[in-house]
Specification:
This protein has nine helices and eleven strands. It is α/β, with parallel strands linked by helices and 226 residues long. It folds into two domains: 7-34 and 149-221, Rossmann fold, CATH 3.40.50; 38-145, Rossmann fold, CATH 3.40.50.10090. Helix 4 links the parallel strand 5 (75-78) and strand 6 (95-97). Helix 7 (163-171) packs parallel to helix 8 (184-192). The N and C termini lie close together (6 Å).
Amino acid sequence: MSKPEARVLITAEEASPLDELLRSRGMVPVHRPLSRTIVLHDPPPCALPGAVILSSARAARLAPALQSWVGAAPVACVGEATAQAARLRGLRPWHVGEAGASAILSALEGAPVPWVFVGARAPAPAMRQAIERGEVLPWAVYDQEEQVLDELPEVELVLLASPSAARTWARSGGGHLPVVVIGQTTASEAEACGLRIVGQAARPGWSELAQAAAEVLQPRKNGPAS
């Protein structure tokens, strides 16, 4: 008898497109969001940015009047999904980084100031430290409300796509389940939370995350039939 398909937990707020990417690789997606987005309406911290850092596709979608505010300033995006969302807003990303906030900040060395971070109210640690040092101005366009799970679903693998998801999953009591992370920033937070990382996407992206999950489960799929 063939083995049943593995149940894999999606913890992002929206299941799509990860659910279809998992199905296409022979997995059964289970969706339990660990956060809820709250749109903010704060104005940008300056009239003319020297350079802009877009932290996520969600930030690119939610920032109001983004194209006119950015003007000719260079735009650095964290990940290709963010870059794609920026292009849909009429922007032309100058740099697309795949290694998180630290790499983005290094790439911006020599760029005009002020640098403005456009993203969540609670950014990743490296960006938060840069803001605290006065190197970057923050423009929070959304916040995330944590949603700790009262009951854990029956799954074989958990996918984490942000540091906040790692923290919330740990608070939900899921430390015994193996996790696959979308990038190094999330991996660092998951390790700090004591989670068991068994895989990491080759680069930040939904397709890469789904592929990493498939590779982790491949030995199970190829095991002897019972």
